[in-house]
Write a structure and sequence with these properties.
Helix content is about 35%, strand content about 30%. The protein contains 6 helices and 6 strands. A 6-stranded mixed sheet has the order 1-2-3-4-6-5, with helices on both faces.
């Protein structure tokens, strides 16, 4: 869990320069060890490792955590506005690949593994991406995500996207 947090901070919006944000993308949420562990207990996170080093992760976020991370509350409100209550989904809380390991198929493999691991309980993965994070949006669309809607929250625009 600590390696996930370390990789998260290394790639956080506040720690990446403007050029890198455009070229490589960024993450926007900082998790605590406590909430990360609780989320993992409900639905195990997907990680990629090189030997003992975590080089990528996809955080599984059960919808019951929708009120636990302040910056993600608007996402869950927007999901409720476009996704029927009968729809069974898991939220992808964040995905990140270590800079040295990008463009090697890890992003795609994390999502493939996540999709397999959540079935049959959940039939889709929903997440949001900062509308200015074009690198992340391109990567998500390339693995099959489709846009549900664009909305404004926290002073920025977000793309709410789904992978069926």
């Amino acid at each position: 869990m600590q390696q996930i947090l370390d990789l998260q901070q290394k790639n956080h919006l506040q720690n990446v320069n403007a050029e890198e944000k455009v070229k490589e993308g960024f993450v926007t949420v900082s998790h605590t060890l406590e909430i990360l562990s609780e989320m993992n207990d409900a639905c195990p996170h997907i990680i990629a490792k090189d030997q003992e080093k975590v080089v990528g992760y996809a955080l599984c976020m059960h919808p019951r955590f929708g009120n636990d991370i302040e910056v993600l509350k608007p996402m869950f409100l927007e999901i409720a506005s476009v996704v029927p209550e009968t729809e069974s989904f898991i939220a992808m809380g964040q995905i990140c690949i270590d800079k040295e390991y990008r463009r090697q198929g890890i992003f795609r493999k994390l999502y493939e593994t996540m999709k397999k691991s959540i079935q049959p309980e959940f039939n889709s993965i929903i997440t949001e991406v900062d509308a200015t994070n074009l690198r992340s949006l391109e990567a998500h669309y390339a693995v099959g995500f489709k846009e549900l809607k664009t909305y404004h929250a926290g002073g920025q625009d977000w793309k709410l996207i789904v992978l069926d």
